[in-house]
């Protein structure tokens, strides 16, 4: 059954909010690498992104491809959480 436009729009909106939250949590753990809460919140945000990515309509997926997303977010959205964690750690190490 196709997803309604309203539901699709809500999921897209939530995905955008989660992307912003993920960036904020990444910043938080970069500033405080000892923060267990920061890593936990980042993990939850990445997990929610992956869940939403599997629920979104093709239009939302196409829209997400047009916006800038980092490699670890893409991996998380595909359900590759181990790869997402590795890419995130590499990204943080470079900063």
Helix content: over 70%
Q: Could you tell me the number of beta strands? A: 0
Integer-rounded radius of gyration = 14 Å
Q: How many domains, in number, for the residues? A: 1
Structural class: mainly alpha
Task: Give the overall shape.
Answer: elongated
Task: Outline the biggest β-sheet.
Answer: none
Oligomer: single chain
Euclidean distance between termini CA atoms? 44 Å
Strand content: under 5%
Output the helix-strand order: HHHHH
Number of helices: 5
- Which regions have little confidence, pLDDT < 50, spanning 5+ residues? none
Instruction: Give the mean pLDDT.
Output: 75
Q: How would you characterize this protein structure?
A:
The structure is a single chain. The protein is an all-alpha fold. It is 81% helix and 0% strand. The protein has helices spanning 5-31, 36-55, 58-66, 71-77, 81-94. The longest helix has 27 residues, at 5-31.
Ordered list of secondary-structure elements with their pairings:
Blueprint: H1 5-31, H2 36-55, H3 58-66, H4 71-77, H5 81-94
In short:
This protein is mostly helical. Helices cover 81% and strands 0% of the residues. The termini are far apart.
Tag the structure with descriptive keywords.
elongated; 95 residues; 5 helices; 81% helix; mainly alpha
